[in-house]
Write a structure and sequence with these properties.
By secondary structure, the protein is α/β, with parallel strands linked by helices. It is built from 31 helices and 19 strands.
């Protein structure tokens, strides 16, 4: 079945309630019970608004009016989808079922008898998580801009007396830019089952893909009957089929999409990626050339044509029996060219934990996104062991696949045939709040991997806890804590001399823009304003520069200049090699970073860090080193004040701040050495030390 969407991370604008009220918003009781810490943290992500409606089962007008109220709310304000708290004293099941068909976020609060209700504490606990409550009544309607109609005319009310099918169709045919994705995903799938059209199927599938429901996206698209000359449909179907590893079918649909000039660059880049992940590099380059013919600036096609995912530097020793027999295989997300700077450094950092030679002579690369097929299996089994990691490989939506449902594209049957020791080393569980693994396939693959591993180490204790929750009880104790090797850079890097470190009077700032909706909700303007105030304050004593791990990170500099008139120089770390990235972080005095590795890499270089927390993994790392005060949530109301205060404290006594970093680092080194002491014998590395 195609599911309804979960709550979107983005909340309503802060001004929503002030525009919507036809009566006063009830104040939050001063003594109301607070939500649990996790719920409170989620509530602080962005201002949250809820609609509240009290329905009396004894009043026939309430049961009849509630569906019309919900329809008016959606049709008059199609971009709004907030929680709808329904207090009632026993509405009939058919009325409640109708309400749930009309809104994806109905929260029932049985009121019992009397105005206060049977469970006022539960009501107060729940409403305490919201910034504003908008009171509605079953007899009211909601017009455009959330204006409440208290006494609608019969003619007005009649406009919202619709069957489910007519209502769903009325919403789904609205312009796409006006629709809220959660409402589209609530109404689209049931309408598709009744009246499938290619446009509705495509739009519904795109929404399903955004929440990681790839199989459901294929199901939605399969409900339609497309023609060959509907390229946008074929583009959506090809991409969805890739995500569930139905590769032959995906190629057919993407070729149909590529026939349209406006879609050709994207379609050919997808075809090139598809050929690469299937191990056909010549076909991949052929598609990439066609993509560049259609769009000479296409970055994906450029990278694939230049062998960016192919790791040509490792090909030199392929097939040399004397080398192969002494190598370890390493499954990792390999970044080259202008890809993520943190991902460039990660594979080398992992290898340095196992010895001082991270080169092709010692290691055989296994790109995790490439299909692990019979050839890859034979190459791994010819080595003396396989290391998987590090990095946030437990993530459902980067290079999604139907074989494992996480980043390593490995079918269970081939995983079971790996006959050399396997170690999972410093992998992270990188799911954002609001994301989830929607398929049992991930749990099954995860359990098979843990069962097969000689060592299974995750890079923070938060990931350890999350993954243990997903495993059968018999496997949970096999999950260990292994810090990310990038946090140990100065201890692992050959020739590192602490005495030679010379720091400039600079502070580097990194902001991440992938999955911006999950990071900022609707709070980005507030975040940018706080960062502008932070930068102005710090520039009075140091040079502030932008550290871009990806080209997208440069948006921070563009937005600061456009919105606040602040021009900052940009250090394009994505253009540097590993030595250059490490040098940039080694010679600065402080890094304020949003990406996980914009904190972990400088920390590994002995540089103080402050984290802009937009993802749990940053808080996990700071908890592991017992320094939660080094992190500030991106939606903290005092973000600028806290950042300036803590940054100035670091700059005022920099020697002490560096000493604190080195002390925390020793804790992580101790854990790593203990793990490696047990792991080396399994990999045939006795007597070798990093």
């Amino acid at each position: 079945m195609i599911p309804s969407a979960p709550r979107s991370p983005a909340a309503a604008p802060a001004s929503l309630a002030s525009r919507a009220l036809s009566g006063p918003v009830p104040p939050r009781p001063a003594d109301a019970a607070r939500p649990a810490p996790a719920a409170a943290a989620a509530a602080r992500r962005a201002p949250r608004v809820a609609f509240v409606c009290r329905a009396d089962a004894a009043d026939p007008g309430h049961a009849a009016g509630l569906p019309a109220l919900l329809r008016s709310l959606a049709l008059a304000n199609p971009g709004v989808c907030e929680d709808f708290l329904l207090r009632h004293d026993g509405l009939p099941d058919d009325v409640l079922a109708a309400a749930r068909r009309l809104h994806p976020r109905i929260v029932e609060l049985p009121a019992g008898s009397g105005e206060a209700g049977a469970a006022p504490d539960a009501y107060d606990d729940l409403t305490g998580a919201y910034d504003d409550l908008i009171e509605l009544h079953p007899r009211w309607l909601v017009a455009a801009d959330l204006a409440v109609l208290r006494d609608p005319s019969d003619e007005t009310r009649a406009r919202y007396e619709l069957t489910d099918e007519r209502f769903w169709r009325a919403y789904c045919t609205l312009p796409a830019h006006r629709q809220h994705p959660d409402l589209l995903l609530h109404y689209g799938p049931p309408l598709l089952r009744l009246r499938p059209t290619t446009d509705l199927a495509r739009r519904t599938a795109l929404g399903l893909r955004t929440i990681g429901a790839y199989e459901e996206a294929v199901e939605a698209l399969s409900a339609a009957r497309p023609q060959a000359d509907q390229p946008r449909f074929h583009d959506a179907m090809g991409t969805a089929l890739m995500a569930v590893s139905r590769y032959d079918e995906a190629e057919t649909h993407l070729l149909l999409a590529a026939a349209a000039p406006e879609l050709a660059p994207k379609a050919f880049s997808q075809l090139a990626r598809l050929a690469w992940l299937r191990g056909d590099e010549e076909r991949s380059k052929a598609y990439a050339r066609e993509g560049l013919d259609a769009e000479p600036t296409n970055r994906t096609c450029k990278a694939l044509l230049q062998g960016g995912y192919g790791l040509p530097e490792f090909a030199a020793h392929r097939g040399e029996a004397s080398v192969v027999s002494t190598q370890l295989a390493h499954a990792a997300a390999y970044a080259t060219g202008q890809e993520n700077a943190g991902d460039k450094i990660l594979p080398e950092a992992v290898r340095l934990c196992f010895g001082q030679d991270p080169s092709a002579r010692r290691w055989h690369p296994v790109p995790v996104h490439r299909l692990f097929d019979e050839e890859a299996l034979a190459e791994v089994n010819a080595r003396r062991g396989l290391v998987v990691g590090g990095g946030g490989l437990f993530l459902p939506d980067t290079w999604p696949n139907g074989n494992s449902a996480w980043q390593w594209n490995v079918p269970d049957e081939l995983l079971a045939r790996i006959d050399v020791p396997l170690a999972v080393f410093a992998v992270g569980y990188n799911v954002f709040p609001g994301q989830s693994y929607r398929r049992s396939r991930f749990r099954e693959s995860l359990a098979a991997l843990v069962e097969r591993s000689a060592f299974f180490g995750l890079r923070n204790r938060g990931s350890v806890e999350r993954v243990r929750e997903l495993l059968p009880e018999r496997l949970r104790d096999q999950v260990a804590y292994q810090p990310c090797p990038t946090t140990l850079t100065r201890l692992l890097q050959p020739g590192w001399d602490e005495a030679e470190v010379e720091r400039a009077d600079t502070v580097l700032v990194n902001c991440a823009y992938d999955r911006a909706g999950m990071r900022f909700g609707d709070g980005y303007p507030r975040f940018l304003d706080a960062m502008a105030r932070t930068v102005r304050a710090l520039r009075e004593r140091v040079d502030v520069r932008v550290a871009a791990h990806m080209t997208a990170d440069e948006q921070f500099a563009h937005d600061l200049r456009r919105e606040h008139g602040i021009a900052l120089p940009v250090d394009a770390l994505y253009d540097l090699g590993n030595d250059g990235i490490r040098a940039a972080y080694r010679r600065t005095r402080l890094v304020i970073g949003m990406r996980g590795h914009a904190g972990m890499i400088p920390f590994g270089c002995g540089t103080p860090v402050l984290s802009l927390v937009s993802h749990p993994k940053l808080a996990y790392f700071l908890a592991d080193i017992d320094r939660p005060e080094w992190g500030v949530r991106v939606d903290d109301e005092r973000l600028a004040e806290v950042l300036v205060e803590r940054a100035e404290a670091v700059l005022d006594d920099h020697t002490a701040a560096v000493a604190d970093v080195l002390d925390r680092q020793r804790m992580l080194w101790k854990v790593t050495r203990e793990n490696l002491a047990g792991l080396r014998p399994a990999l045939g590395l006795q007597g070798e030390t990093p």
